[in-house]
Amino acid sequence: MTFRERSSTPRGPVRRVAVTGSHGLIGAALVRSLRADGHEVVRLVRHPARTAHEVEWDPKRQYVDAAGLAGCDAVVHLAGAGVGDRRWTEAYKREIRDSRVLGTAAIAEAVASLDVPPEVLVCGTALGYYGDTGTRAVDESAPAGDGFLPSVCVEWEEAATAAEEAGIRVAYARTGLVVAREGGAWGRLFPVFRAGLGGRLGDGRQYWSFISLHDEVAALRHLVDTPELSGAVNLPAPEPVTNREVTAAMGRVLRRPTPFPVPAAVLRLALGDFADDIVGSQRVLPARLLESGFRFAFPTVDAAIRAAAA
């Protein structure tokens, strides 16, 4: 059993947990972890339910078969168009926004409509909320930044208002770059670095707030299981590093040279507006997560890369 499939320590009774985005990188790992500990998982799917463990929903139409969520103790909402999946055209930026805002509103209204709602809604959002923080370290007390992603994150979190007004505990899991081979931004880095073609992005001075996939799943489960946690909770590891340091760590762990820097101008040509977020800097700290007693299994970038490469 690899670290990605290893379960967390079981806490309390068996739960019934609904998950959106269950086929994505984080959602699939969360489902494996919950099931490994004997919990019942209900997947929200975009087709008619085929089993008792599926619930149909359509975020674009803001439709959820709310009856299928009856009896759930928790809902973990992770669905949304990938910010790094395509070049950021105006049309794709609309898809990024709508997939998050409309989907979150649909889930929040569905759980709020239940006679017996779940105890908690964990809504996956992003560290993009803070915008470019430069070298300044920020925690959950910092305001929203400027630009496209911060504006999306603000609307994204506001879309869960119906659940909060219904008295449901809502936690916003603001996630950083997830270190994993299977997908996400880091999934694209591994083959490049293994081929000896890796290098810093832009000037390499930008901070990256990362988290191992194992710790991401453990943190989401911690949010489900910790009654005092509501509102915004940052989910990066406690030691953000610069892109230069990431590049050096990838070279060390994979034992490959890292000779080829990628100029910022080339990134902008290839990625459009998304390049500004790649060469931008986010130095974000998990203050509330640490204060609540959470402990990272892989707190350093070297440890996170080793775990993903294993």
Q: Which percent band covers the strand fraction?
A: 15-25%
Question: Which second-level CATH architecture applies?
Answer: 3-Layer(aba) Sandwich
Would you identify the CATH H-level superfamily?
A: NAD(P)-binding Rossmann-like Domain
CATH class: Alpha Beta
User: What count of domains describes the coordinates?
Assistant: 1
Mean pLDDT: 90
In which range does the helix fraction lie? 25-40%
Helix/strand-derived class? Answer: alpha/beta
H and E order: EHEEEEHEEHHEEHEEHEEHHHEHH
Largest sheet: number of strands, sense, barrel closure: 8 strands, mixed
Which regions contain 5 or more consecutive residues with pLDDT less than 50?
1-10
Task: Indicate the overall shape.
Answer: globular
State the CATH topology.
Rossmann fold
Rg from alpha-carbon coordinates: 19 Å
The main sheet orders its strands as: 4-3-2-1-5-6-8-12
Tally the helices: what do you get?
Answer: 11
Distance linking N and C termini: 11 Å
Total beta strand runs: 14
Task: Describe the protein in words.
The chain has 310 residues and is an alpha/beta fold. The chain has a single domain (16-309), classed as Rossmann fold, CATH 3.40.50.720. Helix content is 37%, strand content 17%. The protein is built from eleven helices and 14 strands. Strands 4-3-2-1-5-6-8-12 form an eight-stranded mixed beta sheet, with helices on both faces. Strand 3 (54-58) and strand 4 (63-64) form a beta hairpin. Residues 1-10 have low confidence and may be disordered.
